[in-house]
Amino acid sequence: MLTGMALADLYNLLLFFVQILILVPNSGATVSAIIVFGDSTVDTGNNNYVPTIAKSNFPPYGRDFPGGLPTGRFCNGRLPPDFLSELAGLKPIIPAYLDPAYSISDFATGVCFASAATGYDNATADILRVIPLWKEVEYFRDYKKRLTDYLGIEKANEILREAIYIVSIGSNDFIENYYSLQMRRSEFTLEQYQDFLLGISENFFNQIYQLGARKISLTGLSPVGCLPAERTGNFMDSFNCNEEYNNAALEFNRKAKIFVAKLNTELPGIRVVYAEIYDFVSEIITKPSEFGFEVADIGCCATGTFETGFLCNTDNPFTCPDADKYVFWDSIHPSERTNKIVSVYLFKYLQSFL
């Protein structure tokens, strides 16, 4: 059996070989850009420019990011879109669309429209006044116009056609909206709410398809009941994972797979892959030592039990010195090292586009 460090070294070796393989000529397919929609799992800094408390543009966030910069990523370092872009042979950092430090020339090879704390449901975005999914689509529409003005219609359409679209969203609809605040529980059963979200998702996919998206990866939900914050709230069950939340995620994932298959038959020329991560992330959480981690039940930042966002700050004396030992950075979000391991795993789903 591989030791924890041996398995960690294996993942680094796999990352190296993946980077080598993408340099080998293939059938002619190329990746022109990485274009990102979603929530805090993939928001590279858009919430910095939104009047919300859902921000992370301050230390110790970003302490392991190049230059030690708190960019607005809910992490100590880089996020999956950054790693996936690098794995695809593009730049190692995906800029946020609302960041004025970047121009359309920067966005031409990768851009992020995601917003932390958002969801499929507009009501979820309203909780912390972040960017709703429909507004992410409007930013994408604006991006297409700017890209066309910059490169011309033929080149712009080529970039949009050959780009890989990363979509990672949905957890907040359940853990914030349906369960914590119970905003939708008076209107929907859990099954009805899942179907309601998938209806919104279908409209979203149709919209970005009409705008030129063809190669899309939809990331499934992870075991949200095992987030440190959810463990903390599950004190009646010895702070174990909240299996009710996990089961809701599993059922939503099952329906999402069916939905993806439906999209692939109904929209000509589209290629959507469903990126299943639930079991893999669950394995990291339940067997952390096999991946080189030491702690999986709490985060590195502050006490790691409930803090995220502004509660994760430099005034808290409990933040760990080495986030690489932790599966989670704060009580909700993975550490950079977890993001890297998960990204290498996720890249296998994107290889069908290469």
Q: Write down how many β-strands occur, each being a DSSP E stretch of 2 or more residues.
A: 7
Which regions have little confidence, pLDDT < 50, spanning 5+ residues? 1-6, 13-29
The spatial strand order of the largest sheet comes to 2-1-3-4-5
- Percent range for helical residues? 40-55%
Structural class: alpha/beta
- Distance, first to last CA: 33 Å
Which terms would index this structure?
354 residues; alpha/beta; Rossmann fold; two-stranded parallel ribbon; 12 helices; 7 strands; disordered N terminus
Topology of this structure?
Elements: H1 4-21, E1 34-38, H2 80-87, H3 104-107, E2 110-112, H4 122-127, H5 133-151, H6 153-162, E3 164-168, H7 171-180, H8 190-210, E4 215-219, H9 228-233, H10 243-266, E5 271-275, H11 278-286, E6 295-299, E7 326-328, H12 336-350
Parallel strand pairs: 1-2, 1-3, 3-4, 4-5, 6-7
Helix pairs in contact: 2-12, 5-6, 8-10
How would you characterize this protein structure?
- The chain has 354 residues and is of the alpha/beta class.
- The protein has a single domain (4-22, 32-353), classed as SGNH hydrolase (Rossmann fold, 3-Layer(aba) Sandwich), CATH 3.40.50.
- The chain is 42% helix and 9% strand.
- It is built from twelve helices and seven strands.
- It has helices at 4-21, 80-87, 104-107, 122-127, 133-151, 153-162, 171-180, 190-210, 228-233, 243-266, 278-286, 336-350, and strands at residues 34-38, 110-112, 164-168, 215-219, 271-275, 295-299, 326-328.
- It has a five-stranded parallel sheet, with helices on both faces.
- Helix 5 (133-151) crosses helix 6.
- The longest helix is centred in the last third of the chain and has 24 residues, at 243-266.
- The two termini are 33 Å apart.
- Residues 1-6 and 13-29 have low confidence and may be disordered.
